[in-house]
Write a structure and sequence with these properties.
The chain is α+β, with helices and mostly antiparallel strands and 269 residues long. The strands form 3 sheets. Strands 5-6-7 form a 3-stranded mixed β-sheet. A two-stranded antiparallel ribbon has the order 1-2. Strands 3-4 form a two-stranded antiparallel sheet. Helix 5 runs antiparallel to helix 6. The protein is globular, with a radius of gyration of 22 Å. The N terminus is likely disordered.
Length: 269
């Protein structure tokens, strides 16, 4: 192997070794392990321009009619497909795959727009969750694979507050990207935004001793065992009074689930 030669310029051997080490680190994939392979500034700009807060159950609506034709959208989707998430550290991987899921979901809707529900894209025999939406590191991948084969096995149940399947009863779409360097804050904010809704997050009826929660907590109940169970996890993101009640009297409360509304979270509706 050809050896790298440092010209004799009066540099001490110790300094030369430091230069070599710095050069080696700059070329190592691990040096970029905590960075995002997606342009988060571009993604943030697109979210700001093409999503809107709403006062209804949806909370954040997406302008599918315009976002797909906006300069930068195709570039963003291309960046997702060109990423090498296997080189990233854990937080960067989680942030990447959450962003990828949401970007690819929006892109899927754009490609089939207009429609009433994301479920209209698939069929009984070929559900939308199994449709390939990108090829990443040479692997064709679907939304279902991102959720069930990549994100859920990483043991972070708050991803259920972060990935959004373009539906009314989904958690509200975050209007800023998930970032590797602030993943903890972003995931906690997503949980609070979701559980802050008494229409699709959590509704506590102390008089009737009843707690109504998202159907997502039923579908993925085992994912929340790492946090002590569904109600224990939920209590961490409520106001003090509700949290204390849920940890005490709420332990014996009846648990019900909101009906899941799959209608599109479209700005035009």
């Amino acid at each position: 192997m050809k050896r790298l030669r440092i010209p004799d310029s009066g540099i001490s051997s110790g300094v030369a070794l430091m230069v070599l080490a710095a050069m080696s680190l700059s070329l190592s994939p691990s040096a970029f392990a905590s960075e995002s392979p997606v342009d988060l500034t571009l993604y943030a700009r697109l979210l700001e321009a093409h999503t809107r807060p709403s006062d209804d159950i949806v909370a954040v609506r997406v302008d599918y009619r315009t976002i797909g034709s906006t300069e930068g959208w195709k570039e963003l989707v291309s960046q997702v497909g060109g990423a090498r998430p296997s080189l990233l550290d854990r937080d960067a991987q989680i942030a990447f795959w959450i962003n990828a899921y949401n970007i690819l979901t929006i892109d899927l809707i754009v490609k089939h727009y207009p429609l009433e529900s994301i479920k209209d894209i698939g069929s009984f025999f070929s559900p939308v969750w199994g449709i390939d939406v990108a090829t990443i590191e040479g692997r064709p991948i679907s939304l279902g694979e991102i959720e069930h084969e990549i994100l859920r096995p990483m043991g972070e149940p708050r991803i259920h507050a972060a990935i959004v399947c373009a539906s009314t009863s989904c958690p509200p779409l975050a209007r800023t990207p998930f970032r590797p360097d602030r993943l903890e804050q972003d995931l906690s904010a997503a949980m609070r935004a979701w559980l802050g809704s008494d229409q699709k997050g959590v509704r506590i009826d102390r008089r009737e001793q009843r707690v109504t929660i998202s159907k997502i907590f039923d579908w993925f109940e085992e994912d929340f065992e790492v946090g002590g169970g569904v109600l224990a996890t939920i209590s961490k993101y409520l106001d003090v009074d509700d949290a204390n009640w849920l940890r005490a009297e709420g332990k014996s409360a009846s648990v019900l689930y909101f009906r899941y509304d799959w209608s599109l979270n479209d700005l035009q509706r």
